[in-house]
Prior knowledge:
Blueprint: E1 5-10, H1 15-26, E2 30-40, E3 45-46, H2 53-63, E4 67-72, H3 78-94, E5 99-101, H4 108-118, E6 124-126, H5 137-143, E7 147-153, H6 169-173, E8 188-194, E9 204-212, E10 215-222
Parallel strand pairs: 1-2, 1-5, 2-4, 5-6
Antiparallel strand pairs: 2-3, 7-8, 7-10, 9-10
Amino acid sequence: MTHKRKLLMSWSSGKDSAWALHRLMQNPEYEVVGLFTTVNEAFDRVAMHGVRATLLQQQAEALGLPLEIIALPWPCTNEDYQQRMSAFIARAKARGIDCFGFGDLLLEDVKHYRESQLEGTGIEAVFPIWHTPTHELPHTMMERGLRAVITCLDPKKVPVEFAGRELTAELLAALPEGTDPCGENGEFHTFVFDGPMFRKPVAIETGEVVERDGFVFADVLPA
């Protein structure tokens, strides 16, 4: 019997990290033992996705996995970020974690950054959906029962009225030409509330839609 490698999943609350988690849960090489997320201390939300920490906890419960929140100050300097992540990595290593899983698809610089962060720590970065064709991936996810809503979008790239809407084949077809269907160029971010990786759906409703710092956010609330 080979030793399964203990893995923590970097959790953004969105579709790509959910799909990467699903792939890792199916892979006999790994034992997924928990999730970790960085949350903005001032707003108690996930950066960019704008999702409330309470909903992250509900996702974790629905997934049946413990969640560790790494609180980041606001504003957050690079030094602050490095310091808090280094402390988290050291704690993970001390409790026998072998790997961190990430849902990155295309951005080489992000992948290199994650790998360099873990270099020399004894923890390996794992990218289970890296370079999956993004025009196929959302359809595969939805066919397998993944459901997500758009929580944040760039109004220069995607119509404002898409904020708070569920990601469907119809919505993907209505995206402006040149939009990456996975939002890989920062077009949009999502919150996953159901899928094959969940034991039960997370009950949600969409709250107000606001514009902040050039982005449009739809507030997702526990139903």
